[in-house]
Structures are given as C-alpha cells and as structure tokens.
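Quick look at the format.
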Amino acid sequence: MYIKSLSFKNYRNLSDSEIFPSEGINVIYGDNAQGKTNLIECIWLFTGGRSFRGSKDSELIAFGEKKALTELCFYSKNREQTISIEISGGKRSAVLNEVPKNYLSQIVGAFCAVVFSPDHLTLIKNGPEERRNFVDAAVCQIKPGYAVQLSRYKKILNERNALLKDIPKHRELEDMLDIWNDRLAAEGAVIAIERKKYIQKLSELAAGFYDGISGGKEKMSVSYRSACPDDISSAQEIKELLLKALENKQSDDIYCGFTTSGVHRDDLIIRINGREARNFGSQGQQRSAVLSLKLAEAAVSGNETGEKPVILLDDVLSELDGTRQNYLLHKLQGMQVFITCCEKEIEADNKFRISSGKITASEE
C-alpha cells in the first residue's frame, strides 16, 4: 500500500497544494510550527480515525474558511483507489472510489497507516482508556467490522448507565438490568476475544523490536489485563464471566451510577525488565516502548492484510541516536514512510520543505 498523490484545500495552515510522494522514504522538513505535523495529520485522517492530536473537526479548517477538502489517491489491493474527505460544519463526510459514505467508519480499512508522534508517549503515561483505544483502533484497521462491534457495546453501556442513574428514584426499574447485563456481556465477550487475539500477535513482535532498539540490554513484555483469564477463549465462557461480574457489582453500580466492570475497564500492561513502564520506566524507555508497539502494529497489519501500511513518523528521529535511527529505518524498508524533522540531512527517496504552510519538493 502506498500513496500516489495527496491534495488539500483550506486544511489548517497548509497552502492549497498537491504532492506526489515516493513509494519509499519521504522526509518533510522545516522549522517548528510551519505545518509539518498538519501534513501528517491530514494523511492520517484517511484511515477513518479522528485526529491523533485530539483536535476537533472544526479546528482542521483554515481560519476564516467554512470547509476543508482533502483527497488521497493510493495503490492498494492491486488497484488505484481514491478517498475524498470534506470537513464542514464540525463534521466530516467521505467518498471512497466515487461512492459517498454516510459514516466515516465506512472507510475504515480501505487505507491503513500507523502514526507515531511525541504525543503518543501518553499511551504509556496516561490511563487505561488510551491503551484500549490504541488496541481497538489497530484492530479496526485490519477488521473493519470490529468498529461496528465497539459502537454497539458503547451504545448498550451508555443505556445501562442511564438506567443505573434512574434506579435510585424508580426502584422498579432494577428488574430491567437483567436485559442490559446479558446484552452487554454478549457484546463484551466478542470484543475481549478480538483484543486477546490481537495482543498475542502484537506482544511477541513488540518485544522483538524493543530488543533491537535497546541493543538487547532490556526486555519488554505486553499483556492484556482483563476480568477474563488468559486460558479462557470461548465466547460463551467469557460472556458468563462478564455476566457474573455485572451481577456481583450490581449494587455498587447503582450506587455509583455507572458500570464498574466489563471490557471497557480492561488495560494493556507494558513492562520493561518486569516492571510496569507507566510507573517505573524512564522517558527514554517509554519512548522506545511506544515506538516498538507502533512497529509491531505495522507488522501485524501487514501480516493480517497482506499489505504493509503507510508509516507516519512525526518528529521521532531527533530523539534517537544514530544507532537507533539506523535500526528504525532498516526495519521500515519496503514500506512507504513519511518522516517530519527540522533538518533535511536524513537519507530519503524524496524530500519536501514546508515553510509557513507552503510545501515544495526539494531540489536535491
């Protein structure tokens, strides 16, 4: 999978333009605050996900404009494909291969990418929700139907939570919880199975990449912390466990007004030399761990779909020494890569310079 062309109009501070990247390594260089990350973000949106910077859709439109238009032409599944995205009125709409889509989730899986930026250190530093989102987003790219599963689970969870808030005022509603418990446990079991399968593939690859980045000096491990034991893989068994937990916690849930057990409370545990990276890892260890997870994500995606995803690296190399830079670039051979940096000395197949939002192809 690789991008053939990318065009944008009224997108953040970027001047209206169209670029034609190389199928190999593309370096986007320039001073800080010129628009390099905006370009990476623009590419990422074609995965169907939201901004990896947490920005609202309305913030993606250039100041003073009413809408932004972006279009991606890419090669995938042995043919050329296109995605157009319009951002207007605080929301996005998309057209995939000339077919309008009602929801952005309907383009998930068409174009696959893996992004890493300094902000992704929060993957380790922040709470479990961010790590769950990382796993869920990765699974969605290789199994687009998983996005529908997540949506159903969240809808049922919200409805159960609303019911929990009403029960103290209307005790007769408590009998209705059995219905929501069963539905939530059934949907949760499917999600737990998909997460378990994905993390099993991710963990071994991530450990190998971390070993390479650290020069074999440290060991990294990844595991799934869930109410469901690792040795249970049957959907029915997992459903029964989740259902039992909901029933056992029902009084607590009514008191709290929200659901305190379920797959929405699970976590991805990252350890370095046996100690949790979140609490005991240094800044360098945490950065290397996240980078290893991202490399593993790309590898799993390639193995599962048969096509290597596009790699987006935002200001990553500046924090790595020469040895680690060489290791990373070696592992990315055979993929289309976009790297942002301040300097242009990095060896690349194509280089673009950004200054005040204007992007130009380097003459080198």
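Next, a different chain entirely:
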Amino acid sequence: MGVKQTTLFRVNRLLGLVAGLLLAVVSHVTHADRIKDLASFQGVRDNQLVGYGLVVGLDGTGDQVRQTPFTQQSLTNMLSQLGVTVPQGTNMQVRNVAAVMVTARLPAFAQPGQTLDVVVSSMGNAKSLRGGTLLMTPLKGANGQVYAIAQGNLLVGGAGAQAGGSSVQVNQLNGGIISNGAIVERGVPTTYSRDGVVVLELNSNDFGTAQAVVTALNQHFGAPVATAQDGRVVRVQGPADPTMQARFLSEVENLEVNLPPARARVVINARTGSVVMNRTVTIDEAAIAYGNLSVVISRDAVVSQPDTPFAGGETVVTDSTQIEMRSEGGALQRVTTSANLADVVRALNALGATPQDLLSILQNLKSAGALRADLEII
C-alpha cells in the first residue's frame, strides 16, 4: 500500500510539473506589454539644449576665414576674454579652427554635476572635425538660461583622405560626439504629481489601449485608482505622501497590460517603395489587373557631309530621336479573402508584383473597399 501511494504521489508530482511547464509556456506566448512601454508620465520629459562654440586642434581642415567671417570674430572675442588683444583689421588665416553648433538633451531629474553626451556639428566650411577639441561652450535652453557647459575631445566616426586631386571619404566628417562632454550646471524642476494624482500619456491615441491600462491598474491597486480621460490620457490616483510615490510609480510602470488587437494599418513610403503592414491587415475577395508600361527613347547623331572634297560646304550634325512604347499585357488575378497578414503577403506575392507595383495595388484595393486597413502614405 505504501508503494502504491508513493507511486501515485510521484505521478501527481510529475503531472504538476508538466502543468506548470505548460502554464509557463502559455504565459510566455501571451506576454503582455508593460505600461512603461505604452505610456509616459506627464511632466517627466527631456529638454533640448543648444550652444555655439569653437573646435580647435584641427589638422588644417578648419574653416576658411574669408568665407566664414564669424569664425574669425568668435576667435577674436575668445582671445580677448583670455587677455589676448588682436589688432583690428588683422586677417587671421587660421585653418585649425572651426565654428560649430553643440546640441544636447537635458533629461528629467538632472542635477548639477551630472554629465551629458553632446553632439558637435560644423556650421562653416570646415572639411573635417577629426582630431579636434571643443572649447568651453555654454549650452542654453529655450528660455536663454545656461543649463550645462560642454568641452572635450571629439569622436568622429568618419575617415577620409585626399591627394593629387583625388579624395575618398567614409561617413560624415563634419560632425562628432563627445561622450559625457557636458556638465550640468542647473537642473529643471520636474512636477509630475499634484496631490498624489499622476497623469499617464499613451504613446498612441487608442481608446482600447487606454481602457486596457485602466482595467489593469484598477485590478492591481483596486478601483477607482485609474480613470481614462480620453483615448490618450489616463489619470491615476497615487499616494499623497511624496516618500511613497516613487515605489507606487515603479509598480505602475512595470504592470503588464493585455492589449486588444492593434488597428489594421498599411504604411507606404512612396520615396523608397517600401510597404509595411501589421498582422491585423486583411483583404476581401477582389480581382486585380496590372501591367508594365515602358518608354524607350533612343537618340542617334546623324552626320551630313559635303558631296565632294574641298567643296566649301559645312558638316552638319543632327540628332535623330526615336520613341518606342512597350506595354505588357495585364493579367487579371483573383485574390481570395484573407484572414491574417501571412495570407495577405502570400496573395500579393502570387501576383509577382514588385514593391513599386504594390503601391498602386494597395491604393486601388483601398479605393475599391477590399483592403481592410488604414492606408498611410509617407
């Protein structure tokens, strides 16, 4: 009897392990999105910074002073601040200096002493910023106040060489970055909670997503913690105690939400000919006819010379142009009703259409009402 009970216990334990494994697999397949991937807290945002500065130490690849007078003016002003007086009217032919614009992003909750990455871009006619050093450059916000100071050696990802009138270049040489090249001097006050109420702003405008976020928050914290103001804004009632808000918002960010199916959408880039669809795109039964029309233009030079030598005539050269149009017969293809993206791709590939043909086909399907998706052309 003890052996049977032990065997039954082992079987039940094995079945429990299998069930747990299957549950883990199913939960992994139906993985939900976190709120931090779907929305952001209102008031928690970055701020753009910009500044004007000089890059020195270039190997003769800086600005040409005659064509960029502001570089010479900036250099003269900088030297005067350092106690060096340059006589007026002096034409400085300094090829190792370049005028640049410096940009950076000041993140939320940034405090004085923290460092930022900066991007340095040439604004004159410098050939390369490789090997240059950015001098102390104040970075200002939209209100004109200085929030950071940038300085350091540039890292330029491009490379180039020239000799004998020939040149070769890989990537961009007139821009670079300085990792941790700016030091924050002033922080921006960040207000994200009023009486414990925080506002979630969804990345996209969708009532289904907003309702799913509200449902997940109310199930986790208890109703009525969250309410949807519209298809993008969700108001969340958090603790009024500031010391407990960080923990509460951390739970909100990492809470997983089961989203409804995304809205069917087809995005067409007319410049590159690329077509992107999501998995909810479907097409109804339709018939498509398409064909290629090619125009061939050939031009030949016809030379007309005098009949006899030394006749005193002139040689006349005229162009003979021929235009030929070729049209391939369009094939009428029947496209059956599809249920998912794989069927859509399979149906369109069966037509043998190129990406450029797909642009016209999808537009015509949308006009005919057979494409069950929003068509966006960028």
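Residues 51 and 61 are 22 Å apart (CA to CA).

See the schema section for token definitions.
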